[in-house]
Fold:
Amino acid sequence: MRLILALDFGGTKLAAGVVNAGSREWLYYERRLSPANADASTDLKIMRSLIHSLLQDVTPAAIGVSFGGPVDATTGTVRLSHHVPGWENIPLKNLLEEEFGVLTSVDNDANVAALGEQQFGAGQGYDSLFYMTISTGVGGGWILNGKPWRGAMGMAGEIGHMVVDPTGPICLCGKRGCVERLASGPYMAQNAREILTNPQAILSGELLKNLVGNNLNLLTGQLISEAAAKGDDVATTVLQKSAWALGLGIGNVANLVNPKLFILGGSVTKAGKSWWDTLQKTAKETALPEVTFEILPAALGDDAPLWGAVALVEEIGRWE
Amino acid sequence: MRLILALDFGGTKLAAGVVNAGSREWLYYERRLSPANADASTDLKIMRSLIHSLLQDVTPAAIGVSFGGPVDATTGTVRLSHHVPGWENIPLKNLLEEEFGVLTSVDNDANVAALGEQQFGAGQGYDSLFYMTISTGVGGGWILNGKPWRGAMGMAGEIGHMVVDPTGPICLCGKRGCVERLASGPYMAQNAREILTNPQAILSGELLKNLVGNNLNLLTGQLISEAAAKGDDVATTVLQKSAWALGLGIGNVANLVNPKLFILGGSVTKAGKSWWDTLQKTAKETALPEVTFEILPAALGDDAPLWGAVALVEEIGRWE
Structure:
């Protein structure tokens, strides 16, 4: 019996699971929130205690790791975290291999989740797909020819910073009208705030304002989805723009790489039917008539990175 | 001694070459213009006569074919030609295999040229690259993990119809602001004509008008490059927009797939230093800071499809 240890360094949460190789059920599973003032060493400390609590004195056959940020997957070195300080150039694979004495594989969460969905989720049976996560940010990961495609520097999949509206609002990355700038939860909240505080705006957003008791700092992507579902005009405008940006991005990707399937996960994908309808319609209109594809919701939910970490180990297989 | 026969059905021209396997010099080579009223059967007839003139009574070991239009590379069936009627669903691979009795491999010109540049041209030593041709149209082909990536339906590489300016002019494909709509030679000519015939335009375009003796129907992408090099204001505006659209497209592709190298071929790439400078600058600004790449001019020129057809046969290698 070979045990696989799967770890998820998620930025706001840490999770670990143990599974028998080949099984699709966790033997052990633990999840913790990362403290608000966490840095790399506190995250590592919490993860160590999770691991020891799960494994007791057992040694796993291999470790798979999903990291929420850019990773050099060839060396297993974290480049940085956009959420937690202190992760710059941490050799996470080496650290874990020295500590546990077993082969460890590390990759960023979008690549890992793409692999997880392909092996165990919505992408089973597809040998080419693009997985996208749309929540606080917008990221993506590739499966091409049945295997992860990570790019020359491990940076492939950055659909979040594809420019779809060069005259649009400025993104944190410095460009205008990136997919993430229009489609992510926090940016949707910002876009709604800007309309609601613009004295020239024609839209009222009454319902949305009521939802937050007029405290616009409380706006979130989820509240915008809720208000749009109830017909709020500002929320609908903002949400439609998110779906349009993603749809245009997906259509562009389809023309460019022609994968069979797109899988969409993350909190924003729970925005409801009209968001999905606009996204599907815009994607199909943007793709050439000969370029067909499916767009499916992710199947693994919050556990996608952990299951992907299991798949990462099984993909490599050198530990067998 | 094994002979490879390479064929190029180019839309406006037909070419055939014969080479010893492993050699980089043509034993025989012929090229013809396709007649103005050509259809698939006249093209095939001309190509047959080229082949018989080259080969005499010798049988090649294998045939590689570059076709100027969408091809199902798995079956070697042409989907259609955008330039020559009658090519719909022609099983070109089967036709040639029956006629010559040897293994034949068929793919579209952009994929074939990408492979040619990687094997014999500017992409030697790179295992990931995106080849783009910018002339009457804008197309592209992928090399990933050292091999062609053709997409789930063989449609990968269509950067020409990536939307980069959703409020821009309408493209033949029905969308607004596609890369091809802004960057190709004929569309640059059209954009210049529109400025020159707009009574409200502030730009004069004197030099450009003189170049065509005020007959705006004679405008071409090449004349726009020439006029821009001499400082014409309309030509400069149009050419800069072309470079900007391509640069934005390349930056988006870099973020999304992260290839090591971009290779640019086609007549528009001869537009001069300021076109290249704007393109390089826009591409670098559009890519994330962590996403680095090179952009190089194609090395094989007009023979890229023929050399690519040789590489196509050598890639498959089953004929050995």
About this structure: The domain at 3-108+302-316 of chain A is CATH 3.30.420.40 (Nucleotidyltransferase; domain 5). Chain A is about 40% helix and 20% strand. The mean pLDDT of chain A is 93. The two ends of chain A are 11 Å apart (CA to CA).
